Every structure is written in structure tokens, then in C-alpha cells.
Amino acid sequence: MHLRTLLLSALSAPAALAALNEPCYGSGGVAGVCVTTSTCTASGGTTITGACPADASDVKCCSKTSCANGSSGNCRWSSDCAGTTVSNQCPGPGAFKCCSSGATGFGGYSAPAIPAVGGCKAVAVTGATTVVNAWPGRIRQIYCTRDCACPGTSDHCCGKAIDFMCSDAGGVPTSSGKEIAEWAMNNRATLNLKYVIWGQRIWNPSVDSVKAWTSWRSMEDRGDVTQNHWDHVHVSFN
């Protein structure tokens, strides 16, 4: 997608819809899921307002920090669980499970292959290497080019974007990417950053001031975990 299109979409955020059953960050940054308030209450969870994209009146971020899976049982995305998981104790989709560990289970992956310079431009290859080195074990796989003619509808078409996959598999949600996305913002000069997307939010140095991810501009609901950037951080380079 062209940057202009991305920016126009982001600036039209009030028309965006909450992404039901996708991740959010609850009170204190704990893992949450966007569900109806009735679903959250029925599951014994707690809601906060404003943490799901364009919250509908009955859709809020639901978290549940205590469930029956050992003394530290808590609800989180299974990709982020450092222990064992039990189903049917947490609100939302099946990937949001009762984890036996209170520890953050982000990453633990082998170093991903870095693409060679060619179709993937040098600025993206350098950026990919920089991010992977800064976040060892947190990036499972890297994608650079896409089968489309440059300029196309995405910086991937020109080899000037990287998708940093940071969950256990494509289409599997995680809370892991927020730290990586904010790091990319804070290291924008080193990366020669054009813009960064994580969790249905976008940040662009030519438009936005430096701020927490929670204050980034919202994007429209594109319909699934991958397109809403809940399994990878997208970084475009100049």
C-alpha cells in the first residue's frame, strides 16, 4: 500500500471498527482481547475503555489475570506463554488461553535468515539486521519482497519494507511487537525509517511526534490478525 493511502486510511480513524477477538493491552499493559462487555463479564474478566481500535459502545479490551492453571495462572495469547496452557477459561478466541506462567513468554526463536541485497534493497537488509541484533530471539522470520511490480501498492513491491514476524506462526496473535515497534520509532534515524505499523496503528516521523504506541494513529480493521499487524511489525524504509 502506498504511504499516501496508508496515511489517508489512518487519518480516517473514526470510521474504523474494533477488531473483535484480536489483541489489546489491558490495565498495566497485561494481555487482553477485544470482546463484547457481556462476553468479558461472563468469563470473569475486566474491561478498560479506549484500548481497542475505535471502541464500539459494547466492545472493550478484556483481560483476566487469574485463572485455574497453577498458582500463576493468567490469560494470555498462547504464543506468549512461557509455561503450559489450558483452554476454555479465558474470554475471546481459542488462542487466548490460561497460561501457567506469570513470566513473559515472548520469542525464544532461532535467528532468522536475513535476505540478500538484490530485490530487497540495502536499506531494508541493513534495517533487518539492526532490528534482529537489537532483539535477539524475538524475531522468528523476515519477509522483504512481494510478488508485485514497483511501485505497486506496498513498499514490499520495491524491496524497501520488512515484516518482522514475532509470533509462533503467521496468523497467530501476540503482544510481543509493541516493544519492537516503539524501538523502531525511537531509532528512526539509524534505521532511515519511513513508517512503522504494529497492532492496527501507524507511526510516521514526517507526521507524528514521538509517543507511546497507545497514542499512535489508528488504522482501519482489515479483517484478520496478519493484515491488522498482530503477528508482525511492518517497517518501511526510505
From TrEMBL:
<dbReference type="InterPro" id="IPR058593">
    <property type="entry name" value="ARB_07466-like_C"/>
</dbReference>
<protein>
    <recommendedName>
        <fullName>ARB-07466-like C-terminal domain-containing protein</fullName>
    </recommendedName>
</protein>
<keyword id="KW-0732">Signal</keyword>
<dbReference type="InterPro" id="IPR009045">
    <property type="entry name" value="Zn_M74/Hedgehog-like"/>
</dbReference>
<feature type="signal peptide">
    <location>
        <begin position="1"/>
        <end position="18"/>
    </location>
</feature>
<dbReference type="Pfam" id="PF26571">
    <property type="entry name" value="VldE"/>
</dbReference>
<feature type="domain" description="ARB-07466-like C-terminal">
    <location>
        <begin position="118"/>
        <end position="230"/>
    </location>
</feature>
